[in-house]
Specification:
The chain is an alpha+beta fold and about 325 residues long. The protein has helices spanning about 5-10, 60-80, 95-115, 165-170, 180-190, 195-200, 215-230, 245-250, 250-260, and strands at about 20, 30, 40-45, 80-90, 115-125, 130-140, 155-160, 210-215, 230-235, 265-270, 280, 280-290, 295-300, 305. The strands form three sheets. Strands 7, 8, 9, 10, 11, 12, 13 and 14 form an eight-stranded mixed beta sheet that branches. It has a four-stranded mixed beta sheet with strand order 3-6-4-5, with helices on one face. Strands 1-2 form a two-stranded antiparallel ribbon. The radius of gyration is 20 Å and the shape is globular. It starts with a helix and ends in an 11-residue tail after the last strand. The structure holds adenosine-5'-diphosphate (ADP) and magnesium ion. Adenosine-5'-diphosphate binds near residues 7, 25, 118 and 122.
Length: about 325
């Protein structure tokens, strides 16, 4: 199976989308952006053994495809935009039809959940699996959610629960034990992050600043407050945790995973206090306040607390 057959078999689909003048097959895609929208473009790369464990087994391929799209959807969500078109740059060490079939099924499943169309890409051979998805979305002019609008006195909110993705990644290499249902929940949270697209849309007129939690809550909130020229204090006991996380991990591991582990893809945002407990079907929890002192501080039952390693940093 050569490059062109591979593209035809696994990545070309019939579409009647009227905003795609020319899709996969020519030198470039020709697309019709809506006249009255701003474009939001994001890109994310997943490298085997850096962002995910070795993935040569066909059964791993589907979840890798899903995750590659989901992490980009999460960036679009954090901007308050509607995702629409994506391109895929794929590097593979071989072309195994079973693997590719699983991969494209997972990729398309994540795309279909948000009506995203694959409009092009690039396929190359290399020594490791590298998946790069580029996604374009649209937002009403002037309404994109940004990192730089948080104000002193705002409340810090968090969607869903944190710590699950990092916990799932850690558990993946361990045999299933008595808590296999909880373990499976956590590994699913790593492989199948649910991008908070509808929540992001609903926050456009409510949040003053937003970021998606990909590298760890404290590190990502740190980026938000730095961009906004403010600081934050977090009440650690209010950070929402899943029952699976507290079941599978000892007390001394739970908080570091929740505060500094990555891969959750929840939204952390600042807004004036008083939001409902659920927005767009997603629980949102107040976890602290924005103030004028730079940096992020943690209080655990009103006492200052320190948590090392503020998120994942490449080339550190
Ligand atoms: P070129 O040689 O002009 O760069 P390619 O031969 O790489 O074009 O690709 C042919 C067509 O297939 C292009 O429309 C490209 O966007 C598309 N394509 C290539 N790889 C992928 C992929 N992995 N997924 C989706 N579309 C792809
Ligand atoms: Mg090419």
């Amino acid at each position: 199976m050569d490059e062109f057959e591979l593209i035809r078999r696994f990545f070309v689909r019939d579409t009647e989308a009227d905003d795609i003048v020319l899709g996969i097959g020519d030198d470039g895609a020709v697309l019709k952006p809506p006249a009255d929208r701003e474009q939001v473009v994001v890109i994310d790369t997943l490298v085997e053994n850096v962002h995910f464990p070795g993935c040569s087994e066909p059964r791993d391929a589907g979840r890798l495809g899903y995750r590659a799209v989901a992490v980009n959807l999460s960036d679009i969500a954090a901007m308050g935009a509607v995702p629409r078109w994506m391109t895929l740059a794929l590097t593979l060490d071989r072309s195994d039809p079973t693997w590719l079939s699983g991969f494209s099924t997972g990729l398309m499943a994540a795309a279909d959940e948000h009506d995203v169309q694959l409009v092009g890409g690039d396929t190359t051979r290399g020594n490791a699996i590298v998946v790069r998805v580029h996604l374009t979305g649209f937002v009403e002019p002037g309404t994109a959610l940004r990192r730089d609008g948080a104000k002193s006195g705002d409340t810090v909110y968090l969607s869903g629960t944190v710590g699950d993705g990092a916990a799932g990644l850690e558990l993946m290499t361990k045999p299933l034990d008595a808590y296999h249902t909880e373990q499976q929940f956590l590994t699913e949270r790593f492989w199948k992050p649910q991008a908070r697209v509808q929540l992001g849309r609903a926050l456009r007129n409510r949040a003053t600043a937003a970021i998606d939690v990909s590298d760890g809550l404290l590190g990502d909130l740190g980026k938000l407050v730095e961009a906004s020229g403010v600081g934050a204090t977090i009440r650690v006991e209010d950070v929402p945790l899943s029952q699976a996380l507290t079941t599978c991990f000892d007390e001394d591991r739970v908080l570091p995973l929740a505060l500094t582990g990555g891969d959750d893809y929840e939204l952390c945002f600042a807004a004036p206090a008083g939001l409902p407990e659920e927005i767009a079907g997603v629980p949102v929890t107040p976890i602290g306040t924005i103030n004028s002192e730079p940096g992020v501080r943690c209080l655990l039952n009103d006492e200052p607390a320190q948590f090392e390693h503020q998120g994942y940093v490449h080339f550190q």
